[in-house]
Amino acid sequence: MTHKLLVVEDEDHLAFALEFNLKEEGFEVDVASTVARARAALTADHHLMILDVMLPDGSGFDLCKSLRQEKNRIPILFLTAKGSLDDIVQGLEAGGDDYMIKPFALKELIGRVTAMLRRRAWDEPVAPAAVEAESPAGVFKFASHQINFDTREAFASGHPVGLTDLEFRILKYFADNADRVVAREELLANVWEISPETNTRTVDVFVARLRRLFEQDPARPKHFVTVRGAGYRFLPKG
């Protein structure tokens, strides 16, 4: 199966380079240089979008957010020069599935795209996590929170929260490996499905977002705990 990508990039030389190299990897590629053109070009046949943030007629963040509000779940990889922690958080909270900062290594980009396409399972049920015996199949509970991995529904203290496919996968991995230290490299290899040698802050940003959603005091987490120099430990009972 040939995967079809939509690249939204307004810098002509970079758009050309992305289109050329992605086609060399066997992808079909459409290119759009503005938000309006991206909307016009996007079809149900596209399997993934590579999205810049600073576009001539608007923000990639806003485009992503509006697509999610319209229930469009195409995997979105932000590729942008906006690389602050706040920028990454904004992209993920807009509904982005992953985030890369310019300048970037082409090999890593190809790896991220390939991994995202492997993970693409919006319409397929996710295998249940290790759950408490009294919980229905596919439902994981910790503290006052409930995650249904089959229906892709999450509730933080009874309030529904929107999670991306990757966030569900991170939660499931933590649930399946509760109480033990999980290294960032392990998460990159088994959740992102990219090289554990990848130098990225994305793991930390995703964990920070989970803390904001599920911790009573994100600055003093009881469930998603940092183990200095080693990684993270998920403590369901906190």
Give the distance, in angstroms, between the N- and C-terminal Cα atoms: 44 Å
How would you state the average pLDDT, rounded? 89
Supply the number of structural domains.
2
Bin the strand percentage: 15-25%
CATH superfamily caption of the largest domain: Response regulator
Q: What is the H/E order?
A: EHEHEEEHEHEHEEEEHEHHEE
Radius of gyration: 18 Å
User: What is the fold named in CATH at topology level of the largest domain?
Assistant: Rossmann fold
CATH class group of the largest domain: Alpha Beta
Task: Extract low-pLDDT stretches.
Answer: 125-135
Strand order of the largest sheet: 2-1-3-6-7
Number of strands: 14
The CATH architecture term of the largest domain is: 3-Layer(aba) Sandwich
Q: What is the tally of helical segments? A: 8
Describe the protein's architecture and organization:
With 238 residues, the protein is an alpha/beta fold. It folds into two domains: 116 residues, Response regulator (Rossmann fold); 96 residues, Orthogonal Bundle (Arc Repressor Mutant, subunit A). The protein is 37% helix and 22% strand. It is built from eight helices and 14 strands. The strands form four sheets. Strands 2-1-3-6-7 form a five-stranded parallel β-sheet, sandwiched between helices. It has a four-stranded antiparallel β-sheet with strand order 8-9-10-11, with no helix packed on it. Strands 12-14-13 form a three-stranded antiparallel β-sheet. A hairpin with a 2-residue loop joins strand 8 and strand 9. Helix 4 packs across helix 8 and helix 6 crosses helix 7. The longest helix is centred in the middle third of the chain and has 14 residues. The termini are far apart. About 5% of the residues have low confidence.
